[in-house]
Amino acid sequence: MNAHGHGHDHEHAREHAHGHGHAHGVAEDADRRWLGLALGLIAGFMAVEVVVGLLVGSLALLSDAAHMLTDAASIVLALVAMRLAARPARGGFTYGLKRAEILSAQANGITLLLLAAWLAYEAVRRLVSPPDVAGGPVLVTALAGVVVNIGAAWCLSRANRTSLNVEGAFQHVLNDLYAFIGTAVAGLVVLLTGFVRADAIATLVVVGLMLKAGCGLVRDSGRIFLEAAPAGLDPDEVGDRLAAHEAVTEVHDLHIWTITSGQPALSAHVLVEPGGDCHAVRRDLEHLLGADYGLTHTTLQVDHAPAELLTVGATPVGAGGSAGGHCGEPHGPVHRARAHGH
């Protein structure tokens, strides 16, 4: 391949890393105080709720406590991930440990799903054969939980929610708040009417919230691990926009993925018409990607197109051959300014 026109030379790499001030990950000391406050509120109340739930035999309170345990775990994992993500890249970890938060988010999502399955089983069993439940303690404890979760949600709302972990913890606390409201209603129903099955019904509401949050975390973290393009960003549209540049003849090997939360990245091989200014084209395309798609972490390999690629009827790159020695095994569709298929 041509030695000139390749996306990032060393000088541009330094400019890209420092001159544009990209924020790659969460700073080491960012948001720890807010997450620590939320963790203290949740952990303290969770211990109280477990004791009350065991004393009065309320599955709804125990399910709320289990949900709060996952909230606390998600905050702990977020704090650990922040510290790991702040470490500089070295050795074989060329991105550092920025995906530690994605690992913890997926673990948290799987835990939510497992707990939801167990609680659903227990709730159905208690619907069939309901035990005695003291409505008064359930109501009082649930109302206290509403207050605690409002405080924890406020703390997390002050943190950096571009992190999948922090956003996941925030959504968990919100779900827990809704669950406590449901539990309070169940306690009131039991207290006023003696309908003890209301406790199990409230548990099923909690299960539904846990399933929603768990599936969302597993889905979002799974997309990152599978190197999928960020949700809402169409790689074919991006490739067509790049190929529409007046000096570009073809774009292929286009990849868009997410390094970690809020850090999308792109790489592509761009062929420029003979005589075109590769460096000028690269700068134009980088500006387009940053301004229109928020893609600022980009690597563009820019070469002059071989003459045979411009010949009518020539075998295009990516369609069973390699034109001019470029990309013998191309990945993904080929984008050109003229009509083409994806």
UniProtKB/TrEMBL annotation:
Q: What are the protein's UniProt keywords?
A: Ion transport, Membrane, Transmembrane, Transmembrane helix, Transport
- Output compositional bias ranges, type Basic and acidic residues: 1-18
Instruction: Give one Pfam family, short name only.
Output: ZT_dimer
Q: Which Gene3D superfamilies match?
A: Cation efflux protein transmembrane domain
Q: Which residues cross the membrane?
A: 34-59, 65-82, 102-121, 133-156, 177-195, 201-218
Q: Where is the composition biased (Basic residues)?
A: 333-342
Every Cation efflux protein cytoplasmic domain range: 234-304
What are the residue boundaries of the Cation efflux protein transmembrane domain, all occurrences included?
37-225
The membrane topology term of the UniProt record is:
Multi-pass membrane protein
State the InterPro entries in the record.
Cation_efflux, Cation_efflux_CTD, Cation_efflux_CTD_sf, Cation_efflux_TM, Cation_efflux_TMD_sf, CDF/SLC30A
Location in or out of the cell: Membrane
UniProt region (Disordered), positions on chain? 1-23, 321-342
GO CC aspect terms: plasma membrane
Q: Which GO terms describe its molecular function?
A: zinc ion transmembrane transporter activity
UniProt cross-references to PANTHER family, sorted A to Z: CATION EFFLUX PROTEIN/ ZINC TRANSPORTER (PTHR11562), RE54080P-RELATED (PTHR11562:SF17)
Q: Which family does it belong to?
A: Belongs to the cation diffusion facilitator (CDF) transporter (TC 2.A.4) family. SLC30A subfamily.
What name has this protein been given in UniProt?
Answer: Cobalt-zinc-cadmium efflux system protein
Classification from the root reads: Bacteria, Bacillati, Actinomycetota, Actinomycetes, Kitasatosporales
